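User: Okay, second chain of the day. Same drill as before: sequence in, structure tokens out.
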Amino acid sequence: MIIKKYIFKDILKVQIVTLIVLLSVFLCQTVIKILGQASTGSIPIGVVSEMIIYSLPSIGFILLPMSLYVGIIVSLSRMSSDSEMVVMRSSGLSGVSFMKIGLLLALISAIATGLNCLCFMPVSNQAKAALTDSSQNNPKYLPIESGKFTEFGDYTLYIHGVNDEHGDKKLGQVFVIKTTKARTMNSPEYEFLSATTGHMSKDRSGTQWVVLENGSLYKSDGLSPELEKVDFNTLSIPVPYDSEEETVDDSLQSVSTIDLIRSTSHAAKIELQWRIAPIFACFIFAIMAIPLSMINPRQGKFARLGPAIILFVCYYLAILSVRNLLNSEKIPLYPGMYIVPVIFVLFVLIPLNLDKNVFIRKRKKQ
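Assistant: Same drill. Structure tokens below.
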């Protein structure tokens, strides 16, 4: 019993460390991607931290089964390399005992994976989409800062002071330059605006406006030294919205699992299978990792790490391939993605876990 607890704790410790390391690596890639979107103006810099947090469940989709797989292989391979496995087997610990420990860890990981994929992931995707939409339609996220030039389509704004009070941006001493083509000539026509105050607003259609107050409008045709001056009390400038930079929102990723179960849509059923796939993967990888970690002490700790990585990649490539075939309706919805675990059980897990000594004894008897 003490030996089983030792094995369980050692695998769990390696699994947690592996999860932290892999999460850090994948999180760095996500941070770089989100910062790239922020640098191009697709998302405001103020929502970067929230976007990173909402991306964690999607990263855990593959990392939770992977951490279990790596944890079992690394931990048991170390025990085999250090000859601890020989002592454990001599004390009566069989391969079935290792399999039971692996399946227990797989059950714990499967519960965590199920909660992540079925509950947390759709909620985080929905919150991420709502945050993206809010950042594009909320005035407080517009890229307006004191003492900087801001491009709004044909307009160039320079604001001397910006006071952000409770999410409402109050503008002070605003200067606006607009360049357009003249109607009768190819020479540009200039418009220069100055206003003492201003603020941001949004109409019923969701269009953002920069509202200028108490200012003057100057017009020039670019040829004559004369300027046309018009004083105004209120003038609104629309903030252009580039639909090409809008973040693509896959609605199925944001739909709750319960709604997917109730739905009769073909795409919804595929999304449901995609969320369930990592749960089966936990048991597949646990059963596959046990025989792969049983190595000869002379082989080294990472003797079978290469084949283990190949099998892991093959499993997920098979899942992705079946998903693409389902989306193109080239194969039936059932068994669908569930066929991949069945194939791995028949052609990988059973051959790996067969006791070779049994066949040797049968040959000797014959």
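Residues 143-238 form one domain.

User: Thanks, on to the next one.
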